[in-house]
Design goal:
The complex is a heterodimer of chains A (646) and B (379). In chain A, 40% of the residues lie in helices and 18% in strands. Chain A is an alpha+beta fold. Chain A folds into two domains: 86-91 and 100-164, no CATH class; 253-635, DD-peptidase/beta-lactamase superfamily (Beta-lactamase, 3-Layer(aba) Sandwich). Chain B is mainly alpha-helical. Chain B has one domain. The chains are: A alpha+beta (646), B mainly alpha (379).
Amino acid sequence: MKRANRDSAEANRMMSRRAMLLGSVQLGMVGLLGWRMHDMQVDQADDFRLLAEENRINLRLLPPTRGIVYDINGVALAENEQNYRIVLRREDAGDIDVVLARLARLMPIDPAVIERTREEALARPSFTPVTIMDRVSWEDISKVNVNAPALPGITAEVGLSRKYPLGSDTAHVVGYVGPVSDYDLGRIEDPDPVLLIPRFQIGKTGVEAKLEDLLRGSAGNQQVEVNNLGRVMRELDRQEGDAGADVQLTIDHKLQRYVEARMDGESASAVVIDLEDGGIRAIASAPSFDPNQFVRGISTANWRALNDDIYRPLASKAVQDAYPPGSTFKMVTLLAALENGDVDPEETVYCPGHTDVAGTRFHCWRSWGHGNINLHESLKQSCDCYYYDVSQRVGIDKIAEMARKLGLGTRHPVPMSAVSAGIAPDKEWKRQSRGEDWRIGDTVNASIGQGYVLASPLQLAVMTARLATGREIIPQLVHTINGVPQPTGLGESLGLNENMLRRVRQSMYDVVNHQRGTAYGKRFNADGVRMAGKTGTSQVRRITVEERAAGVTRNEDLPWRRRDHALWVNFAPFDNPRYAVAVVVEHGGGGSTAAAPIGRDITLQALFDGEPPLDVYPSGVRGEIAEQQERIRNMTADGVSPREPA
Amino acid sequence: MSYLEYNTRYVPTGLRKLLHVHWPIVLLLTAVAGYGFLMLYSVSGGRPGLWMEPQMERFALGMTMMIVFAMIPVWFYRNMAFVAYFIALALVVAVEFVGVTGGGAQRWIDLGFMRLQPSELMKIGVVVALAAYYDWLPQHKVSHPLWLVLPLLIIFVPTAFVVLQPDLGTAILLLAGGGAMMFFAGVHWAYFATVFSAAGGLVWAVMASRGTDWQILENYQYRRIDIFLDPASDPLDAGYNITQATIALGSGGWTGRGFMQGTQTRLDFLPEAHTDFIFTTLAEEFGFVGAFTLLILYALIIFFCVASALTNTNRFAALVTLGVAVTFFLYFAVNMSMVMGLAPVVGVPLPLVSYGGSAMLVLLIAFGLVQSAHVHKPR
């Protein structure tokens, strides 16, 4: 017992020592913990508090309402439509299979859609809405609302989507919107954050694309408190964005529709410029397409059909395609010669049906020739030899200079996609682009708008507008922005000799109104109001010597792709020009037969602001015109009601 | 052995025992638990029925059990030590077969009225068994290798089963707690030095061999070690909890964001806010002042236990008191280190504050033993 006592006393001393030792270690640990608390909570508190705020507060962008595009009368060409969709929230739905099955009993739903909805709903946090169906009819929305108690988690929601009330009639000029693609983002430097909103729509073509910055507006933002799953707990702050600007175009929707309808069945394009303000009243390409398809998401089959069509519905031919202007270019050659005094207007040139230049034979369209012909007659009858001769005297550089003065070979600042600059060739241009010297034959070709010369229908309309007014008309497409009038495109005087201009206009008048004019059959007379114009037929192929020997092949006998382009330019009224018009019918054959009638009808439609009376037409064609008017009336029957722009 | 073997002048009997209960410890335990109730109310978003009320009921039950256990003479526990140990061990083994899986590990046995975590019970079982063993073992044999076998078995057998569950936190607490007991008992320091240097050497060898020809572990195992040591290297998975926890803790500042105002907790950024990570909520809402206060309360409890043990000539009683104190210390030290990013995340609750029935009951019963040791201290 004694030993045990001594033993235990020793043991207790050791235990006390060790307990004190370990106690100190524990105290040290408590000190370390206390220091760490102080370090984190006092010294680093600000950093951590910032992190906590970042965790908690989420900035969300509120997409702005896109600006509306109006025509000059206040009719909406692009507007925002309320779009109903049916969405599913998993957390409210309970058993989503049951709920979806019930919905499928109410309305036909593709099983694939149900499967996709199921997968999407399960893949995302339970509170995020998943769209089951988009653009749902009001009837289906009512069904969902009436049966709401049986459809937990399924709600009808409303959003805005772009709509083009005139559909295909304004497809090329207004364009369309679509969801932002990676390609779009890659193209834009420093993209607006609003573009990163999923499925945010931006302009893809036409005015929608070119005036994107105006139409888009600026995003608002919403500060929300979120939890760890991203669910919004409450809204802390909200700043509404600015809606996009409303843009009013110079387009007249009625005329635009008429032009589109008049070109139905052709691969054609036309431009009407109002000479009072330089505004484009109509700019149309046929055939066209329904831009609303693209907003909804076009099916592969439809897309392929549009892409494979040889008439190229997607092409905005009026601005993006440049054609050899053919005889419509002759005014340029004439004015260049007259301005520079290289030709006397009364001087005649002998036309035997062809001209030999530097060992090459250039043919006139009339193979038996025009005989002795002066300036006036040469334009009226569209004699080619006269121009072959004159152009050699003037030289290409002066012709090109005049072409540029009249608006060819330059890109007009029209907010449409892929606006072509065309080509007004000169010596320098050929050296630069081809690395070859200019040859005299090139001048001869260019003098009648063949060879290297290329012009878009818009440029031809501008040329005609400048000829008609003598002013540097710059085509305008935007009339007002948010109600603020935009500058007109009347421009300064071109400084051309008014007498010379008058001569050329008179010749153009006779093209239509003189018996021997090439477009005599396409004349009209509305109480003395008449038009002046010029036909053009441009070759898309070379006529070989063998072909010529075998007799001139008729256009109608060629495959469509190899037929001539038909061109037409005009202005009216002759005395006090108001409208300048250009029409190109691709592979349409002769300008006077294929393009001029369209130009005439468009002009009349513009002058009368609607359907002209039959008696303005020559009596011979009235029956045919009556039928045509009836047909177009039916095509444009569905009315569009004007609205005042904001 | 009996009561008379002790050289005692005075031991209280009957109701007088109540006067000798260590009331400051009771007060401190109640204060810590009260802090816990407050936090559970806050974490539940003001729904007392969710966690706070069940916790209060268990605390009431636990306090009653503590007083009852305090009344029982401490030598009764010594005599029953191995019985208790084997019951606890049997339950730990049983949990392997009939346990309920929670959080990916088998930890519970459903008793109907509560879920029992035998591993919690085991911590006390090991302490009591080792205390009884070293009370019995003459001091001169303590450091003899032969007499080390049994205590090592007492520690390693339950530890092995706990690791299988897998419950790394409890395993660490068992090893550290058991080791501390052997240290108190007087096992020669050279053993501890050997174990520490061997462990250190092994860790060094494992880490140093990485990337060499004689690499000890597979690459994926090293990556697991990396993530274990530095959860921030895996910010989406393992690192998420600890990142959010440090943000909550740090954003508390001096005085915190106010009761029920912690955004990290309110908005569910904090994981396990009512159990292992409850300290972060406390620190976020009450700041450094609140968190440090809790640390002081814990330290005071340890201090009173050690003080009581140092004045106790009953070797078993002193060892049990020190063992419970060390276990208690390990709980909060590991938990706080973990949420403050000083230690890897292992599942250890904050004692008396985290929501959990077994841990609270077992801890209060353990303090019942401490109280018994104090009440029956030879005076």
